[in-house]
Amino acid sequence: MAETAAAVAYGEGVPCWVDAQLSDVEAGKRFYGGLFGWDFHEVPEAHDARGAHGRQGPSVGAFLGGEAVAGLAPKADGRLPTVWTVHFTTPDIAALVGRIRAAGGQVITPPTPVGTLGAAALATDPEGAVFALWQPGTRCGFGRRHLPGSFTWAQLYARDVNVAESFYGYVFHDALFGPGAAPDFGRAALSEVFPPEMPPHFLVHFAVTDLGEALGTVERLGGRVRALPFGASYGRVAVVTDDQGASFALLQRDWQGRTSAP
């Protein structure tokens, strides 16, 4: 069986959740439901909570096989970017915010309760890459990950990889790049995939069983292929956007015989 959220023991610095900030959540449900087979349910706890992204209004949880895999949320302001954001878990969000500031990052939105689900904050690293923090309440994070149709990797594209390693190593106590590094996170120079004018950013990866078929589905649903399939140390990757412009990646690994996440 796939992991359940209650069974996952997320250490600090592990990617525990992803959500998309969209202009049209209903359109997002059609796109991602068609691509990954997700079902959607509203999140009552978050309806009146002004969360990490400053939004208000109904958010929806995405589910696969009855397990939570992601969230879709309305943008608070139409001028804000349409993006996927990765959340890193922490048992003490206030202390982590302090380390981010001390290491040269910025806190966009301070720690904010999201109903009973937990507390969230939004920050940037010294180069401007945006990420979120999550201190669990009733929601620990993913109910399913590393399986087709769910989150499997977060790649940081940085201008200076050494700066990134220094910052995240300090902020998360080497959880990302140290000897016991989280298996769901990597970093690379922007020039490896993107043009130099692209700002530093995190790219959320979702697992698929057949990359070519998934790319065809993306285009059929109105999305676009931004980077054709290329090989990486963690699998075969393609970068796409949904029909509203949110970028993400599709990752094909060898799933033969695999029924649960590590």
UniProtKB/TrEMBL annotation:
Gene3D superfamilies per UniProt: 2,3-Dihydroxybiphenyl 1,2-Dioxygenase, domain 1
UniProt cross-references to Pfam families, sorted A to Z: Glyoxalase
GO molecular function annotations of the record: hydrolase activity
UniProt keyword annotations, A-Z: Hydrolase
VOC domain segment(s): 14-136
Residues spanning the membrane: none
Xref: PROSITE patterns: VOC (PS51819)
This protein's name: Hydrolase
Highest classification ranks of the organism: Bacteria, Bacillati, Actinomycetota, Actinomycetes, Kitasatosporales
